[in-house]
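Chapter review. Work through the record for FtsP/CotA-like multicopper oxidase with cupredoxin domain before attempting the end-of-chapter questions.
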Amino acid sequence: MSVNSNCSVSRRELLRAGTGLAVASAMLWPRLSLAAAASDYEIAPGPGRAFLKGEQGQSTSVWAYNTRIPGPEVRIRQGQPVRIVVENRLEEDTTVHWHGIRLPNAMDGVPGLTQPPIKPGERFVYKFTPPDAGTFWYHPHANSLQQLGRGLAGALIIEEPEPVHVDRDVLWVLADWRLDSDGKIAPGFGNPMEAAMSGRVGNSVTLNGSVPEDQSVRAGERVRLRLINVSLARIMALRFEGHTPVIVAVDGQPCDPHEPKGGRLLLGPAMRLDLVIDMQGESGKRYAVIDDFYDGLAYELTNLAYASQSPLRKNPLNAPLRLPRNPLPVPDLPNAERHEMVLQGGMPSMRDMMGGGKMQGMSRMSGGMAGHGPAIWSINGTSMTGDGHDAEIPPLITLKQGRSHFITMRNETAWWHPMHLHGFSFRVINRNGAPVPHNQWADTVLLAPKDTVDIAFVADNPGDWMLHCHVTDHQTAGLMTVIRVA
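Structure tokens for FtsP/CotA-like multicopper oxidase with cupredoxin domain:
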């Protein structure tokens, strides 16, 4: 289990290949460094290589930020201005979206909507001051299927002004990959059949860019574990055998501390969970962490491996679990303006194959959609394909700035959809008519087939904002729209 310190990342660390990543010497670009100030970063998307099947296998050609899978961890304090220079070393356009951050519209990273794309060899400077502490991440919003699917993702951690009372702060960036028999990333991005079902689900899962190994822990310690799912389509349901994780934040936003229902942590693409785990296992023993979302395809993600040394403490740490609240405006529900969004499309004849979470999207058809591809999904009967380039499409709805808004999302499809709203965090109010407990806020809400979810927020951030499914095949095939706040 990796420990994330609060120290600045050195130039040498940014240049050094991450765990499980081999980098050719020609790829060690000397300008890829953290600037002198802790709030200044340089990030360069470009080619790299990674051992996605373990150190004993062949390395895989990937796309990476600063040659690292995942990209360098950007870690700053709440309310601290940050300046991030992105230099495009790909052979195609790119942008960077700072997922979950409430920032100015011009910094949101959607090509054709909030900024021009960053051309090969060009730079773009992102500047913002994050108002919220929590676990966030960054990824492209151009050619999203391939750029994210080939490895472009990194963690963005906004620290609380005062340290949280835990022994360690640990990050797990979880990703899956579609690999062929030679360990290469398989072709077929944008396959229409997959796009109409569950998307491009991979056949190999990594933890912090490597094939998961045992995660070392010590009896008696308290760990804050930050989970980020950066997969294109894979939904995860994690169980920690012999342990009782407590959820303290959803999508970076603190909630009432609570144990997951049935001990199962549901994590769709782009979603994050902050957990506090008191390591109460026995010294010298191993406890499995299992992902069992897809029926009949459960697997062991990793193990918590206890050191043989004596426990750090006999009883759990006597410190509060609750995280300090972020300065989110609270919606006025009785006077909120009401809106409805209906998700439609996909392949309804396959719904029985996904009921309960059965796996789909495992074929390796070599064909794929070029450009924006066909519209397979829609929101309120309107489809927007691609990554944001179709910004000439008028906004689906216009929200009055400063007002509270209550949005009902109805999933009329046979498939799961993690719906993400840029620029805002929203309160999750109801699911299928029942109140959602624990005061949960999010920026990405997972809708099961036929689910209806109510969310609410104050539209205090002006601009045109994307709302889309974060199963990336669904997004690029039409399950995306624009909301205007004016």
